[in-house]
Design a protein that fits this description.
The chain is mainly alpha-helical and about 180 residues long. About 60% of the residues lie in helices and about 5% in strands. The protein folds into three domains: about 40 residues, no CATH class; about 30 residues, no CATH class; about 100 residues, Up-down Bundle (Methane Monooxygenase Hydroxylase, Chain G, domain 1). A two-stranded antiparallel ribbon has the order 1-2. The protein is elongated and about 80 Å long. It starts with a strand and ends with a helix. It holds the Pfam family PSII_Pbs27.
């Protein structure tokens, strides 16, 4: 049973001096201990806690990532993304000119290059040797694509330079640099 308190209600001692709380004290809800159906007033804190709990239940395994628990570090993500783009580039440039999947592979490399550069250009990793080597190789490849298209073979000197940069980038990734 819920009773509405009248003007005779009082606040705890620390709040009596504040006019803000005395105005609110005249109409607050009092619980009756004799009632089994006790009703509590919803508070903002309870609403937020309920919403957060529902969000965690609905998201399931993503809840850990939402809270930052168990989420891979930025370092691990950078290493994985860089190793992935290096492998894609190596596989694509190793394909023969007559291979039917070469154009598609080169287009995938172009998209992957754009995504990698866009993600890490301003991410605070630009001073790393692995970033510099990978960026140099990807830039040389992108310049070749822009000038000659994705189906044109790489000149021997450019191919050697790209492979050297990719090798150096792989070494630096292995060292954590």
């Amino acid at each position: 049973m819920v009773l509405l308190a009248s003007r005779s209600c009082t606040l705890p001692r620390p709040f009596r001096s504040s006019s803000r709380f005395t105005r609110l004290s005249c109409h607050h809800i009092v619980r009756s201990s004799a009632s089994s159906n006790q009703v509590s007033t919803p508070t903002r804190r309870n609403a937020v806690a309920t919403a957060a709990g529902a969000l965690l239940l609905l998201t399931g395994s993503r809840a850990h990532a939402f809270l930052g628990i168990g989420e891979p570090s930025k370092e691990d993500v950078y290493k994985a993304d860089t190793a992935k783009i290096v492998d894609e580039v190596r596989k694509a440039i190793a394909l023969d000119k007559s291979d039917p999947g070469k154009e598609e592979a080169m287009e995938n490399v172009r998209q992957g290059t754009n995504n990698w550069v866009a993600k890490y250009r301003r991410a605070g990793v630009t001073g790393r040797p692995s970033y510099g080597n990978t960026y140099t190789a990807l830039n040389a490849l992108a310049g070749h694509f822009n000038s000659f298209g994705t189906t044109a073979p790489l000149p021997k000197k450019r191919l050697e330079r790209i492979n050297k940069e990719l090798d150096d980038a792989t070494k630096m990734l292995g060292r954590g640099r």
